[in-house]
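Progress note, project year one: complex with NDP.
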Amino acid sequence: MALTEKIEAIYQEVVKRNPGEAEFHQAVKEVLDSLGPVLVKYPEFTEAKIIRRVCEPERQLIFRVPWQDDNGEVHINRGCRVQFNSALGPYKGGLRFHPSVYLGIIKFLGFEQIFKNSLTGLPMGGAKGGSDFDPKGKSDNEVMRFCQSFMTELWRIIGEHTDVPAGDIGVGGREIGYLFGQYKRLTNKFEAGVITGKGLIYGGAQVRTEATGYGCTYFVNEMLASRGDGFKGKKVVVSGSGNVAIYTHEKVTQLGGKVIAMSDSNGVIFDKTGVNLETIKLLKEVQRRRIKDYCEYHKNAQYTPNGNIWDIPCDVAFPSATENEITGKDAKKLVKNGCIAVGEGANMPTTPEGVHVFLNAGILYGPGKAANAGGVATSGLEMQQNAGREAWGFEETDIKLQQIMRNVYLQCSEAAEEFGSPGNLVIGANIAGFIKVARAMIAQGLV
Ligand code: NDP
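Model obtained:
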């Protein structure tokens, strides 16, 4: 069988074994499509069936999460944790609480996480978890009861040397605090390294909150620098207004760019004078309100309900909300409007058609598994500090993050070059991330 047919056969098997999990299929296909030249160079990977093995999670747990709302009504949600691959270290990856969550989403995220964590150079395996619970509109007490119930199942399979969850969509500092509190109560241990994204006063790390957005901006800065360019004077659009989006805005602004639009799941704001970050932080981090309320503070800004943020002309785009938010049509529009760089803060935010458009147009395109690796990298630094009972300062941690992102960029561009696709960071990220995992799996035998 020709190599491409062999890879296609593995992909078809994944589709058959995981029916109805479209996002997982999409993530697997993208990685597998990059691996042909790797199998030519390393025939031992084929012999050990590494690709087949890497597509099958090591362990998956699905559980019931019952909880009571403030009126005493009982609700039932579903929780899960997919421990995908532990070749490079303890399982590591966030928890997502969003009504769209089902096993296919968690598997896609867990699969991506394996290669992303590998790219950071830190000893972390790949995992992801979550629930179809929607924290939006819930009181703090309801969120706390849900988190306690969720952890009452999850605690059995996590631990600082086993599996270390963190945040993702719908899971921020508040949720991490409640989850950690319940873990501590159930185990009678202050095991700080069991979860990352903790508050600074109880074992959290400086820069963790900022890390994904800052890291993604550093990555795009590296891409721009490769063409002798930078953020100065650039018009920037950032989708979403959550953790990743907010700190992307902050770093872009520090580097001289101007963020002119942001969004949430209800609509888009456009502020040609530059979106005011303090207002966004107040609305989103403190008051948990909707982005349309931005216009109460800034009368000249425009709000478009259900608007498409990618219609707004910009130099640099940071999709930082959710998967498949940039379609082929959106990508064409961005390119036509003069966009020169895309940095994926979100995971898999561009559809395969969109990726194709960006690569064909030759614009700078930083795929999520590389560009947003700064979050988990800084979680790795949090684990290091917890293990050493240390707390590093903001500046020194930020410098480490910058170095890690530079290194991620270099690994991707060098692998792309070495394997015959110079400048294609999708292929570069997949190959550089995969080779390390494959080697570690071979070294550890058939497990
Ligand atoms: P948050 O929950 O803090 O923010 C998510 C933002 O995206 C909100 O503005 C939300 O709007 C919007 N959003 C979420 N789902 C949808 C949807 N289906 N349609 C439209 N808008 C949506 O999450 P994060 O900022 O942490 O995560 C954003 C992305 O970054 C995700 O893809 C995540 O996997 C990825 N990521 C996050 C990391 C981290 O460290 N947090 C690390 C690496 C990647 P609304 O409030 O209206 O729902």
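Residues 167-170, 172, 212, 240-245, 264-266, 320-322, 345-347, 372, 375 surround NDP (CB under 6 Å).
The mean pLDDT is 97.
No further modelling is planned for this target in the current period.
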